[in-house]
Fold this sequence. Notes:
single chain, alpha+beta, Alpha-D-Glucose-1,6-Bisphosphate, Chain A, domain 4, 2 domains, 8-stranded mixed beta sheet, 24% helix, 36% strand
Amino acid sequence: xxxxxxxxxxxTRVINAPKQLVFDAFTKAEHLQHWWGPAGMKxxxxxxxxxxxxKFHYKMIGPDGNEMYGIFNYKEIQAPEKIVFxxxxxxxxxxAIKAPFDIDFPIEILNTWTLTENNGKTTLTLNGYPFMGTxxxxxxxxxxxxxxNDGFGLTFDQLDAxxxxxxxxxNEMKTSSKSSVSTYLNFNGNxxxxxxxxxxxxxxxxxxxxxxxxxxxxxxxxxxxxxxxxKKLVLHAALEILGGHIIKAxxxxxxxxxxxxxxxxxxxxxxxxxxTETKQLFDTLSKDGIVTMDxxxxxxxxxxxxxxxxxxxxxxxxxxxxxx
Length: 324
């Protein structure tokens, strides 16, 4: 921590991700809920509208079940470089209230977060100062600089862990925002063996540089716990084989509830550019067929679903456009 004036809190953190990804982590509900807030507390996003005069209202739930609420009131947004807002403890309706502890702490803090990028890494700088605080509240704020610095440090540790897992996994599984088509294969636990064989046949490197395993799934997602045996399985593999065509695959063993037979272990994998196009294609191809998985937002950052059409052909849908 450093200070530009005595009462101001200034914290600087370097995050190993481009600033657009960091900005997304600060401004999208599906990301904020996994890292924002004091360490050890679960966060629920009640409402989020990131624009001038917009609000971020959230609930924090402690290990003991106790609940607290918080509110951001956004003043200025310069995507993806700057966010200015006031923060405060709040009630269930989103009204700013006094801090729920017995000290004369400022009701609102004026915060400025700035993001600068260098060689793919982002420097986050937080500036905080009491907003309309009394002299006594400013004095309390100054006295708590050290503990606030520690608290934000733990919160940003959560951000580091989330970005390194969530966005790393998402980027490995989607290398372009353009529409594309590939062939998707399922294996009964031997994807790695099969893809190393295909790699020896066609040459080249795995898309993303490696095979992604189930152990790479972020721990703070809704995915059920995995055994050590299942963590060793391949979650995602991709390899260019001929003429620019890419084959992709995952392990789908019987021990995880799958039953693979010749014919259901291959899909035409569609990756539309937009969620609207994805829904349209899904609805059209699944009509009079069988929906094997409804379209939904998945832990790996995709709008995903699958079906078998009325002619018995298997289709998968995978769109990484953010939910709006």
